[in-house]
Specification:
heterodimer; A: 243 residues; alpha+beta; Ubiquitin-like (UB roll); Alpha-Beta Plaits; 2 domains; three-stranded antiparallel beta sheet; globular; B: 180 residues; alpha/beta; Rossmann fold; five-stranded parallel beta sheet; two-stranded antiparallel ribbon; 6 helices
Chain lengths: 243, 180
């Protein structure tokens, strides 16, 4: 869901977030304004430097006068907005979203290479998820170890599509894509062939670094060893967009 | 000044590695302080053979994987005022639940026949029957306090017990997490 490109000359709007009066460019999204003002908004699919996807819904906020909740990543600010970012209702929804992510696939943190460095794991702790209230789906997914440097474990994938977007928008290879529907969605390389046989993959590893969980990891890492580095992304994104 | 009455604590170990009980013992010298505030009335750590009728705090480690686990979980729920689910196996199934992706017969064959060279056979005497699906404790009985972690640290267990001794319901998310 790419938002229209930012304009050089835009108006400034004023809005209120959690009781604070703030001003922002009218082409900014709520999550951008919150991040600029150190207002914490949880998110998993949103990543600065990539296009907006709006899939995880963890960044939901409440807007006065609106019955439904809005995703802060895909909603532009407008004049006079009254936004609440951390109400009891939002906390309840976020907790449920994280629980559903855990129930959908098989995130066994204790034997994961990303244990201790996983955004989903941290999110669970932050949202107070100490157990999952729905039954686990217990679906079986394969592991693709065909790439000589990297590994894909669908069990750990939360379908945030960061890998798809970084490969397309920053690396320019578009090796990754998504197939299937609903909870049966899967990220795929090329035409759903083994990653190691991909003609388009440049083995740059950007997808691995932006993956929030242990779904995409380096080969040879053991439990808790996979630490990811996303510092490159805003720098590369700025260079891409300034071209 | 009279000392406050001790609370009674029962623990048991279902399908897990006993790491949570090891972490419990990892409280080191704090165990001495703990003994002044709790009576451990039933546990792998003591020699009592039967679960008393009335226990203040029951602590279950491990997931529900066999008929025996099921029975113990029901007994703990029946006899304990507060039931604590300790560790990832108890809270979310963890490693024992990874067998849920396979048929039970295949799992048993793998353990007792495929990988055994000397007298491969499936034990049937003196061992409880395995259930087809491994479940977390709260998939079978109601749980009051969830303490995730593999294992939860001694500090986390100390915090949980201290709060329970003080008559409060702890919120362990501040001190532990899945996979901790």
């Amino acid at each position: 869901m790419p938002l229209p490109a930012k304009q050089p000359n835009v108006r400034v709007v004023t809005l209120n977030i959690d009781g604070r009066d703030l001003s922002a460019r009218e082409d900014e999204t709520i999550i951008e304004v919150c991040r600029e003002n150190q207002i914490p908004i949880p998110s998993l699919c949103y990543l600065e430097g990539l296009s907006v996807w709006g899939a995880c819904r963890l960044c939901l906020v409440e807007l006065s006068g609106q019955g439904r909740l809005l995703a802060a990543c895909s909603t532009r600010v407008t004049e006079g907005m009254q936004i609440q970012t951390n109400t009891e209702k939002l906390q309840r929804y976020r907790r449920t979203i994280v629980e559903l992510l855990f129930a959908e696939r098989n995130h066994v943190c204790s034997v994961c290479v990303s244990n201790g460095h996983c955004e989903l794991q941290h999110m669970a702790q932050k949202c107070g998820v100490d157990h999952v209230r729905v039954p686990y789906r217990q679906a079986s997914y394969p592991v693709d170890s065909s790439h000589e440097m990297f590994r894909l474990d669908h069990d750990r994938c939360i379908l945030c599509t960061r890998c798809v977007r970084v490969c397309d928008e920053i690396e320019g290879a578009h090796t990754w894509d998504v197939m299937g529907r609903g909870s049966d969605c899967r990220v795929i390389t090329d035409m759903a062939q083994p990653w190691g046989e991909s003609d388009t993959c440049t083995s740059c590893g950007k997808c691995v670094q932006v993956c929030p969980t242990g779904a995409l990891v380096k080969q040879g890492t053991s439990v808790g060893e996979m630490v990811k580095d996303q510092h490159f992304l805003p720098i590369l994104a700025r260079r891409r967009h300034s071209q | 000044m009279s000392t406050p009455p001790k609370i009674t604590v029962a623990t048991t170990w279902l399908d897990g590695c006993s790491g949570c009980h090891m972490s419990f013992l990892d409280m080191d010298e704090r165990l001495i302080e703990l003994v002044q505030q709790v009576d451990i009335v039933y546990s792998p750590l003591v020699d009592t053979k039967t679960l008393p009728d009335h226990v203040d705090v029951g602590i279950l480690e491990g997931s529900i994987s066999s008929e025996d686990d099921l029975e113990k979980a029901h007994a703990f729920r029946k006899h304990c005022k507060i039931l604590v689910s300790l560790g990832d196996c108890a809270v979310n199934g963890n490693v024992p639940a990874m067998r849920n992706h396979f048929k039970l017969a295949d799992v048993v064959d793998r353990a007792y026949r495929d990988t055994v060279t000397f007298q491969p056979q499936t034990p049937t005497q003196g061992v409880p029957a395995l259930l087809a699906v491994v479940k977390p404790i709260h998939g079978v009985v109601g749980v009051d306090v969830f303490v995730p972690g593999c294992p939860p640290s001694a500090d986390a267990i100390w915090y949980v017990l201290s709060e329970l001794i003080a008559g409060r319901i702890p919120e362990p998310s501040a001190v532990t997490r899945f996979g901790a």
